[in-house]
Design goal:
Blueprint lengths: L20 E3 L3 E4 L2 H12 L4 H15 L9 E7 L7 E5 L9 H5 L18 H12 L4 H14 L1 E2 L2 H9 L1 H6 L1 H7 L12 E2 L2 H16 L5 H13 L2 H12 L6 H5 L4 E4 L1 E5 L2 E5 L6 H11 L4 H4 L4 H21 L10 H4 L2 H9 L10 E2 L19 E2 L29 E4 L5 E7 L46 E5 L2 E7 L6 H14 L8 H6 L3 E3 L15 E5 L4 H9 L3 E5 L9 E5 L6 E5 L6 E4 L1
Parallel strand pairs: 17-18
Antiparallel strand pairs: 1-20, 2-12, 2-21, 3-4, 3-13, 4-7, 5-6, 8-9, 9-14, 10-11, 12-13, 14-15, 15-19, 16-17, 19-20
């Protein structure tokens, strides 16, 4: 039964910018109209949500390269009806076997987020083909056809991508293959609406199709594995590694050949009867789960949507989650993370009791989950218990935001949410391999991920770089079940802000349904806040402690109240906070698929 808000008058019924998107069969919401279109196309041809999701990842890796390229990472949650469980596919690349803190510091290198120093092995191809092999029904040739077509024959360049190319012209011109891909033959820029072709990327995808067809005698799964192997163990990998080594990067062929997308159960908590699933502590996903645990102890409906009390407690819960994230989250293959303690309801109750409803927390202060964890009883790494804005004594990273710092908002991410006619759910947050900073590896057409910038070159940090470790990434898909049945797939771009967008969108759905039903677009249009009270995941890990942005549309009286509590409040224009919530849900009342896309970007939702 749908948990409907008790009070229906807290938010006026919205007049949404976009009409409701509803269908009886399936729903899709993604970061680009062409990405959404290919998913619908695959579904209408008989593919399931996983076939459609992989096709969308492949098309996105061609047409959305201001947000995500094929050589980036792909973090996926799946809910196959046949298994009735949420599974996480960790398509996050790892560092080279030779990558150590000393390797970088002895060469006076940083992990600044452009070029080859922060490169990790591409994770998106392995994740996509793992999903296709395990849960799909179609071949790689079938799901990659549109991506190959767009790369080979071209597609119209959207304004956002054209402006990203122009903004990054100095970086593009520094690398010959980037210039070949992103500039015209005469060196001039593409205008929005121009057709752009990527023959090298098309050829790489065709090689993978050829490998699949050569292995067809072994069946569908063997063919998909052969396509994946050609990328990671064959001539494509050899060309990428040769390019990296020519430019002084520490990768070898084994770093690619040994790579795998980790497959593991989703990480979850319950919130007022819903089961909320995220990726594990190698991501920032549990930040949302911790915030939900804290907020469950408050009567949010009684406070009222976007009231001063409501926004204060949401901001303070997020601050606590981020402080724990910055302290305790890391690659669990290398660090014993106190996961049970961090997600325990008792720990959340203790943290909630520390929120002062009259005063904003000005310092970054992590909690102590160890007493609530049955396995982890000591913590050898840095913990956030220092004055906000102070610089870590062991490392120059992590100080306050300064003029001239690299702006992580210039990089971005995309998201894909799909629920099919059978109730299978695919939810993915692909990213990396951007126009912004990703070097094209030789003649492959593949821009390399710079996600290694989310490591620390600081031996006191749990998230430090280690050989073959994966950085604690920001990418964070979400699947929500109700009574064990699929209810909602939800995510967003936005770097560190992803959990803030998802949290506010999710609370709009779960707590304030009357404000938007049945138009899911409207749930994502409501004004949002954004705190910067965390160590940035992107190099150089700066903090803007206690800053709280409020979109116009939140009343002046609320701003004044939050300011009086000590928040560094700033009004920003409507629809300007980073993020673009994209989601699909099953309406428990009708069984219809409701799809929504945030107006803050050119995200696009469709259903049939």
């Amino acid at each position: 039964m749908f948990l409907i808000a008790v009070v229906f008058t807290l938010v006026p019924q919205l007049s949404a910018q976009r009409p409701p998107v509803m269908g009886r069969n399936a729903g899709v919401s993604a970061g680009h109209p062409l990405t959404t279109a290919v998913a619908i196309e695959i579904l209408q041809k008989g593919g399931n949500a996983f076939d459609a999701g992989v096709a969308a990842m492949l098309v996105g890796g061609v047409v959305e390269q201001d947000l995500y390229g094929f050589g980036g990472e792909g973090l996926v949650l799946v809910y196959p009806q046949s298994e009735r469980a949420v599974t996480s596919v960790v398509g996050q690349g790892w560092a080279a076997r030779a990558a150590t803190i000393d390797w970088f510091t002895s060469r006076n290198k940083t992990l600044a987020g452009a070029g080859l120093d922060p490169v990790v092995v591409p994770g998106a191809p392995h994740a996509a083909l793992t999903v296709l092999e395990k849960w799909g029904t179609l071949s790689f040739a079938q799901v990659s056809a549109r991506a190959i077509e767009y790369a080979r024959d071209g597609f119209p360049l959207r304004p956002r991508t054209a402006s990203t190319i122009a903004r990054n012209q100095d970086f593009i011109k520094a690398w010959p293959m980037n210039q070949k891909m992103w500039l015209k033959a005469d060196g001039s820029f593409y205008d929005a609406g121009d057709t752009i072709q990527m023959p090298d990327l098309a050829a790489t995808l065709r090689k993978m199709v050829d490998a699949e067809r050569a292995a067809v005698i072994g069946g569908r799964a063997a063919g998909i594995a052969a396509a994946r192997d050609r990328f990671y163990k064959g001539d494509i990998a050899r060309e990428i590694v040769s390019f990296l080594r020519q430019h002084g990067s520490p990768f070898d062929e084994a770093d690619f050949a040994d790579f795998y997308a980790r497959v593991e159960p989703g990480t979850s908590v319950t919130y007022r009867g819903y089961q909320v699933y995220k990726q594990g502590f190698n991501s920032q996903g549990p930040t949302l789960l911790q915030a939900l645990n804290i907020l469950e102890t408050f009567d949010l409906q009684r406070m009222g949507h976007n009231s001063a009390d409501y926004l204060h407690v949401v901001a303070e819960a997020l601050k606590m989650g981020y402080a724990d994230r910055d302290s305790y989250y890391a690659d669990p293959s290398f660090v014993d993370v106190p996961a049970t303690g961090l997600l325990s309801k008792a720990y959340a109750k203790q943290r909630a009791s520390q929120i002062d409803m009259t005063k904003a927390e000005a310092e970054q202060v992590a909690g102590d989950p160890l007493p609530f964890d049955p396995a982890v009883k000591s913590w050898p790494f840095w913990i956030a218990r220092r004055p906000a804005g102070s610089v870590n004594s062991a490392c120059p990273e992590g100080g306050p935001v300064r003029a001239g710092d690299e702006d992580p908002s210039l990089k971005d991410t995309t998201h894909i949410a799909i629920i099919d006619k059978d109730g299978n759910v695919f939810d993915a947050t692909p990213s990396g391999g951007w126009i912004t900073g990703g070097v094209i590896a030789g003649n492959t057409g593949v821009g390399l991920s710079t996600r290694g910038e989310q490591f620390w070159l600081d031996p006191t940090k749990a998230g430090q770089i280690r050989p073959r470790s994966r950085p604690r990434y920001t990418l964070t898909p979400s699947i929500i079940l109700q009574n064990g049945e699929p209810f909602l797939a939800l995510g967003t771009p936005g770097g560190d802000n992803q959990e803030q967008t998802i949290l506010q969108a999710l609370l709009n759905v779960l707590e304030f349904r009357s404000a938007w039903y049945p138009n899911l677009h409207a749930a994502f249009e409501l004004p949002r806040i954004q705190t910067f009270h965390f160590l940035g995941s992107f190099w150089p890990h700066r903090i803007d402690a206690n800053r709280l942005d409020l979109e116009t549309g939140i009343p002046q009286a609320v701003r004044d109240s939050l300011k009086a509590r000590g928040h560094d409040v700033r009004f920003v224009p409507p629809f300007s906070i980073s993020g673009c919530a994209t989601g699909v849900m099953i309406d428990p009342r009708t069984g219809s698929r409701l799809a929504g896309a945030d107006p803050r970007r050119d995200c696009y939702a469709a259903a049939y």
